[in-house]
Write a structure and sequence with these properties.
two-stranded antiparallel ribbon, 4 strands, mainly alpha
Length: about 350
């Protein structure tokens, strides 16, 4: 088997493993929003979005009472079991076949290789290589922040790249995120820029080498991969560079998502539908954040602690709690009306 074929197989780990067949449409599962980071797997972006998805309606009680909606928590996404193909997933049947094939390969090959890589290569070495590869994405992040007219974030991204490339020994150490710099990594790309300017995601796809994606994200990610080979050339345009770096990225990503994969395998009612729902929701929240359209969060006033009572009340004096509708104070010693 050639090196490129091995790399292609390893790239098939772009999504959680397959689970049991789908349950009936009436079943729903409410899952907490997962993880931050790359957009290929469904990940939680803690700073993006607090608006809940529409909550499911509870079944109508036998007594004839009207059904009541279940309130959704701010960071929860409601995942409904598989039904007919929704408008955003016209190729659902094909995507499901692709998803199941990818999960079978992940369980048989990619997962064991990733766990073996984790056991053999020490964590500091894996982290260093991952940091260096991530540092190489900073020029793409910088360029797209400029295209989105976010000059402050573009400057921060450029600063991260300069600091980590010098003090971080070529990006092996993420020095920029620590004090005194405090510059966090912010992922960006042409897919985000397209969404920023109003390009719709288009149909959803689940592809062997890309995992969960959309037509817009495929086009944007393809442009991301062309930046360094086109702008710099060697070694980024060489297969000898592209294959091993892609394999290492895929292995690191598979290791990071192992817990989420395990959860989907054991708990999800329909892993494919959940993967699609989480991916589309996370991508929409990321685009909304770039466009400044995050829903407002209503701040709940803090409850002030009652001041300690230094002197006890006389036995004959009873504290009175005023009802909201009563204007004025009740005489001491009288109880409030029922």
């Amino acid at each position: 088997m050639s090196v490129s074929a091995v790399a292609a197989l390893l790239l098939l780990s772009g999504a959680p493993p397959a689970a049991a067949d789908a349950t009936p449409e009436s079943l729903t599962e409410k899952t907490s929003q997962p993880y931050a980071g790359d957009v290929l797997p469904p990940k939680v972006v803690p700073t993006i979005g607090t608006n809940p998805s529409p909550a499911p309606i509870t079944p109508e009680p036998s007594g004839g009472e009207q059904p009541t909606p279940n309130p959704g928590a701010p960071n929860e996404i409601v995942v409904t079991a598989r039904g007919d193909a929704p408008p955003g997933d016209p190729l659902q049947a094909v995507n499901i076949e692709s998803y199941q094939a990818v999960q079978a390969i992940d369980q048989a090959l990619v997962g064991p290789i990733a766990m073996g890589y984790q056991g053999i290569v020490p964590e500091p070495v894996r982290d260093g290589v991952g940091n260096a590869l991530r540092n190489l994405t900073e020029p793409v992040n910088f360029l797209n922040y400029l295209l989105q007219f976010k000059i402050g974030k573009a400057a921060e991204t450029l600063g991260r790249f300069a600091i980590n490339s010098t003090f971080g020994v070529g990006g092996l150490f993420d020095v920029a995120k620590k004090k005194p710099f405090n510059l966090p990594y912010r992922r960006n790309g042409f897919a985000n820029t397209l969404g920023f300017y109003g390009v719709e995601p288009g149909p959803f796809f689940y592809l062997p080498l890309f995992g969960a994606t959309t037509l817009r994200d495929m086009a944007g990610n393809g442009l991301d991969m062309l930046v360094l080979p086109t702008a710099i050339g060697k070694p980024f345009n060489r297969t000898a560079y592209a294959v091993p770096t892609t394999v290492v990225r895929a292995l690191n990503d598979r290791i990071e998502r192992d817990a989420e994969i395990e959860r989907l395998q054991q708990q999800s009612l329909d892993p494919y539908v959940e993967t699609r729902t989480l991916y589309l929701e996370m991508r929409q929240r990321e685009i909304d954040a770039l466009r400044g359209r995050l829903p407002a969060v209503t701040a709940v006033p803090p409850i002030e602690a009652a001041a300690p009572q230094t002197d006890p009340l006389p036995e004959a004096e009873i504290p009175v709690v005023e009802a909201p509708a009563v204007v004025g104070k009740l005489p001491a010693g009288d109880a409030p009306p029922p």
